[in-house]
Amino acid sequence: MNLNEYKGVYVYVQQVDNKIDGVALELLGKARDLAKDLDTDVTAVLLGSDVKGLVKKLAQYGADKVILVDDPALKDYRTEPYTHALASIINEFKPEIVLVGATAIGRDLGPLVSARVQTGLTADCTQLDIGDFPIKPMMGKEQQHNQLLMTRPAFGGNTIATIACPDNRPQMATVRPGVMQKIEKIADAEAEVIAYNPGFEENNKYVEIVDVVKSLSNTVDIMDANILVSGGRGVGGPENFYILEELAKAIGGEVSCSRAVVDAGWKPKDLQVGQTGKTVRPNVYFAIGISGAIQHVAGMEEADIIIAINKDETAPIFDVADYGIVGDYKQIVPTLAKSLESI
Ligand code: FAD
């Protein structure tokens, strides 16, 4: 493999029903930083049916080029045609880096595509940089420059591993939603559009989508919330969560929780914040009856303001909190809700 043939940073743009997933815009923002370090450009890969209308938005969020596969075979996500399309694009255009959001779709698509184009993939990254690999020269191992250094928690979050793919291209990563930052929208940006047709005869026949059942939840995704009122085991039981809900209602926030709460069956998994839950970046994050385990903090430390309420003054959550209140939440939270309600 001639590694020098591979150029450009590519971002897979997940869209469902013509709506671009936020992680794709976050990845375009990160791709611009990486492309700048490599002196190359950013290409968005847009797959779908009747999705041309999304090109402008991709340009506004950082794409220099858009490779567009617009085909009825791609109407709803199906593993085989999407894998075929993305793998064909990689084989044809030879990107140096391919980034995919670590969503349910991305976790299906990314590994399959990497296997098909015979390269490595680092899953669930929380940081991406361009640098030297190995980071320190090792005996007998030559240091290679301008490698994609892909960082992710490992061994249950007890260590952070930095992984590279020095011998193959492209360098592929799936990246956690909510970790990277979008750029400010550039209203008048334009992107070059490259229409591509990989052909779908063979890959279109295995799975037929008969019906799509939409999620019935009427709550806001906690990843989109500006204010989160998050409860932990210290809340004491599902029957007490109304206290947090009242605070959330008073200040226009949403309720989320720690894994202990999900494991106990008090709240559903889609409200879990943390390493094995969601990464959130709200303006304000209330951590109530949450101890502040490293796996929880990994999902919320990027919040602008963290307010911790815990009866144990030595709880590690106070190490990451901007404001801390030591005491029983049952006394503190209703008072807080009342005083904030009137603001
Ligand atoms: P606890 O650690 O039990 O803390 C409860 C806190 O409530 C205590 O600090 C206590 O002082 C306080 N408290 C008790 N009563 C009151 C009261 N009346 N008023 C005020 N404070 C009170 N955890 C996550 O959250 N998200 C994850 O994604 C996640 N992923 C994980 C992945 C792996 C591989 C592993 C091994 C663990 C993971 N965990 C995760 C679990 C994590 O290690 C902790 O066990 C968990 O976060 C603890 O939840 P907690 O803070 O709610 O409960």
Automatic annotation (TrEMBL):
Transmembrane segments: none annotated. Residues 9-210 form the Electron transfer flavoprotein alpha/beta-subunit N-terminal domain. Gene3D superfamilies: HUPs (3.40.50.620), TPP-binding domain (3.40.50.1220). InterPro entries: DHS-like_NAD/FAD-binding_dom (IPR029035), ETF_a/b_N (IPR014730), ETF_a/FixB (IPR001308), ETF_alpha_N (IPR033947), ETF_asu_C (IPR014731), Rossmann-like_a/b/a_fold (IPR014729). Belongs to the ETF alpha-subunit/FixB family. This is Electron transfer flavoprotein subunit alpha/FixB family protein.
